[in-house]
Amino acid sequence: MESLQSGCRWRTQSLGMALLNMVVVLLLVSPGRTEGRREKKKPDCIEYQAISCRAHSASLTDFGAVGDGTTSNTAAFQAAINHLSQFADHGGAQLFVPPGQWLTGSFNLTSHFTLFLHRDAVILASQEESEWPLIDPLPSYGRGRDAAGGRYASLIFGTNLTDVIITGDNGTLDGQGAVWWDKFHNGQLNYTRPYLIEIMYSDMVQISHLTLINSPSWNVHPVYSSNVIVQGITILAPVHSPNTDGINPDSCTNTRIEDCYIVSGDDCVAVKSGWDEYGIAFGMPTKQLIIRRLTCISPTSAVIALGSEMSGGIEDVRAEDIVAIDSESGVRIKTAIGRGGYVKDIYVRGMTMKTMKWVFWMTGNYGSHPDNNYDPNAIPIVENINYRDMVAENVTMAARLEGIPGDAFKGICISNVTIGLTEKPKKLQWNCTDVEGITSGVVPKPCNLLPDQGTDEPVTCDFPEEELPIEDLELQTCFYRKGHW
Ligand SMILES: *[C@@H]1O[C@H](CO)[C@@H](O)[C@H](O)[C@H]1NC(C)=O
Ligand SMILES: *[C@@H]1O[C@H](CO)[C@@H](O)[C@H](O)[C@H]1NC(C)=O
Ligand SMILES: *[C@@H]1O[C@H](CO)[C@@H](O)[C@H](O)[C@H]1NC(C)=O
Ligand SMILES: *[C@@H]1O[C@H](CO)[C@@H](O)[C@H](O)[C@H]1NC(C)=O
Ligand SMILES: *[C@@H]1O[C@H](CO)[C@@H](O)[C@H](O)[C@H]1NC(C)=O
Ligand SMILES: *[C@@H]1O[C@H](CO)[C@@H](O)[C@H](O)[C@H]1NC(C)=O
Ligand SMILES: *[C@@H]1O[C@H](CO)[C@@H](O)[C@H](O)[C@H]1NC(C)=O
Predict the structure, then answer these.
(1) Residue 355 sits in which domain range?
(2) How far is the CA of 150 from the centre of ligand 1 (A)?
(3) Which parts of the sequence belong to the Rhamnogalacturonase A/B/Epimerase-like pectate lyase domain (predicted)?
(4) Please, which residues bridge with residue 318 across strands?
């Protein structure tokens, strides 16, 4: 008889069988028999949460892939995905990556598609440059970050897609980045290094439950996209590896980043929207962004950076429940004359920090231009920046806040923040220039440009109450079932 099935679980008997069994149990008075009624997990079935489930499935091994860590599987990945793309309009498809070490160069995703990594699957990034096609620079950047001109496509790349999922039960992407870091340090890069995951011009994107290690450069880069969920990602890179940013939402609308653990050589999360005259011309902001339950270790950079590329604007960012350990700064704003754009309506609450160089850092003097053609009259606007409910310990300096002369950063609010200092703190704890705002219940005592509002009417800085649309996006329980892997 067919077993009763719900998702991956199946009961060993139907309801009718259960009743019959009860009679048998009563007759035989055998307590051991009742165990048969417990739900069991089918051994060849995996359950996962996703924005959509798929009607069709295949395993990477169906396409001749070899998981020995040395055979290149670039062609197998691309053949599998090209084959599965035919199901886009027929319920979509999922590609299962079984246990093994799957060496590959860059490959491209398709719409209504899920890439699922088994927990013992490792996608190993090839170190052969020929395995990495060159693509154009991002239009909002005008050039590559490492070198003028083109850039290598990401390990997992997708553009102009709808409904695409990269997930697993904590399988691994290993960027094998050391060769790229050496080339970067030795000035041997003719093109910009690849990222691990880049999704461009796409809607409905999920990246979840994976471990990403040793990326050549940035780890996760959703760009010009909307309705993006990044969830349960572990990112690990040596803390001195160059530009190994964790998650960089870039000119994206409606994004939710949650339950991530990031140790990195650069910012854990960097929110961006294009670079100087290229970003201004492209004009696509990052807005409606949630970042919550993030743990970050970033000794040389920020827990969350806003900028420095922000020429398309950054607005309505809500960050909460953040833990930072041994990081240079908390939520920092980096911009420069020539960037244009804005950083506004930023809300942060609930941060616990231990061993920080600066808790707060903002600068309008970051420099770092793509070329000399930036407009010196393109002055960025920074306003309505809210930080509240934070505790930090072992801090060297509370705040370094440097606005732009004649164009102050305005509407800064900091409330209910207690900062404990290290054994050798800076004498000047708050260094403020060209900033305007207020503070309430902040220790140590803030600078005069951010006057304390006193204890009679303590201020609570804003955090919006109404939800963003991305919070309503519900995940479904999906499953992959396979006889072999
Ligand atoms: C992936 O798509 C990009 C952009 O369309 C293209 O340049 C690149 O060659 C594709 N990669 C592969 C492996 O086909
Ligand atoms: C992807 O979408 C962008 C923006 O709509 C468009 O400019 C570009 O031509 C599209 N690319 C492809 C390969 O369809
Ligand atoms: C995923 O794997 C990483 C690396 O082994 C580990 O640190 C992390 O705790 C794992 N996450 C889950 C949810 O199992
Ligand atoms: C970069 O370009 C130079 C000069 O064209 C060439 O000699 C070198 O091999 C190239 N390096 C790489 C890593 O492709
Ligand atoms: C102040 O912040 C702490 C967390 O750091 C929080 O537990 C507490 O409720 C906040 N106090 C008020 C009055 O909001
Ligand atoms: C405190 O911070 C200093 C750096 O300022 C660091 O060397 C030290 O290990 C930290 N102490 C603790 C207890 O974390
Ligand atoms: C304070 O900040 C200003 C502007 O960034 C800088 O020029 C100055 O050196 C800083 N002062 C100290 C004591 O760090």
Answers:
(1) 95-466+476-481
(2) 13
(3) 60-104
(4) 290, 347
Between β-strands 100-104 and 121-125, what pairing exists: parallel, antiparallel or unpaired? parallel
In a domain, 18, yes or no: no
> Measuring from atom 8 of ligand 5, which residue has the nearest CA?
389
- The answer to whether the CB of 193 falls within 8 A of the CB of 216 is yes
pTM attached to this predicted model: 0.93
Three-class DSSP category at 77: helix
Is there an atom of ligand 2 within 6 Å of 160 CB? yes
Q: Is 3 touching ligand 2 by the criterion CB < 6 Å?
A: no
Nearest ligand 7 atom to the CA of 365 is 5
Q: Tokens 């039960």 sit at which residue?
A: 169
- 29-87 pLDDT per residue, tens: 444 444 445 566 667 789 999 999 999 999 999 999 999 999 999 999 999 999 999 99
Per-residue model confidence (pLDDT) at position 1:
29
Is 182 in the active site?
no
Q: Is 177:200 a contact under the CB 8 Å cutoff?
A: no
Handedness of CA 81, 83, 84, 86 (dihedral sign): positive
Of 163, 169, 298, 323, the closest CA to residue 241 belongs to: 298
Q: How many domains does the chain have?
A: 1
Decide if 338 is inside a domain. yes
To the nearest 10°, the Cα dihedral for 248, 250, 252, 255? 10
Contact 284, 274 (CB under 8 A): yes
Whole-angstrom CA distances from 415 to 136, 386, 458, 461 are: 45, 8, 8, 6
The enclosing domain of 265 has a CATH number of 2.160.20.10
**CB–CB of 197/154 below 8 Å?**
yes
- State the DSSP string of 304-371: EEE-SS-TT-EEEEEEEEEEEEEESEEEEEE-BTT--SEEEEEEEEEEEEEEEEEEEEEESB----SS
One-letter amino acid of 233: I
Query: CA-CA distance, 297 to 261, in Å (whole number)?
Result: 8
Question: Residue 340 falls within a domain, yes or no?
Answer: yes
